[in-house]
Amino acid sequence: MAYDKGLAERIRDLLQEQDDLDEKPMFGGLCFMLGSHMCCGIVGDMLMARVGPQAYEDCLQEPYVSAMDFTGKPLAGLVYVASEGIAEDAALAQWVQRCATFVRSLPPK
């Protein structure tokens, strides 16, 4: 499993106060789970962001963002953010918060 371990540490720092945080290998990378829901993850050096279907199209308009097409077919509600889009801590924090907010809106598992 090849993923940016430095990026993983940065995400852990952002989510450290979440008492229901879990990490799982997924999609050939690392996935961060909140309340058993996939929140965000890392594939290579990209952030895999779960933004939800309602925010999906708007997110695709942002710089450094592309459709998550891991299976060859875009997965609505999930986007990739290239490393340039999360190089700054504030930018990464904004994406992780966006993911966490969406996941917290889902019913508990």
Report on the architecture of this protein.
This protein has 109 residues and is α+β, with helices and mostly antiparallel strands. The protein has one domain (5-104): Aspartate Aminotransferase, domain 1. Helix content is 32%, strand content 28%. It contains 3 helices and 6 strands. It has helices spanning 5-15, 53-60, 89-104, and strands spanning 21-26, 29-34, 37-43, 46-50, 65-67, 78-81. It has a 6-stranded antiparallel β-sheet with strand order 1-2-3-4-6-5. A hairpin with a 2-residue loop joins strand 1 (21-26) and strand 2. Helix 1 (5-15) packs across helix 3. The radius of gyration is 13 Å and the shape is globular. 31% of the residues are buried. The mean pLDDT is 94.
Quick summary:
By secondary structure, the chain is α+β, with helices and mostly antiparallel strands. It has one domain: Aspartate Aminotransferase, domain 1.
The helix/strand class is alpha+beta
CATH topology annotation: Aspartate Aminotransferase, domain 1
Tell me the distance between the termini. 27 Å
Largest sheet: 6 strands, antiparallel
Low-confidence stretches: none
CATH class: Alpha Beta
Bulk shape: globular
Rg is 13 Å
Mean pLDDT: 94
Question: Which key phrases capture this entry?
Answer:
6-stranded antiparallel sheet; globular; 32% helix; alpha+beta; single chain; 109 residues; Aspartate Aminotransferase, domain 1
What's the helix and strand layout?
Elements: H1 5-15, E1 21-26, E2 29-34, E3 37-43, E4 46-50, H2 53-60, E5 65-67, E6 78-81, H3 89-104
Helix pairs in contact: 1-3
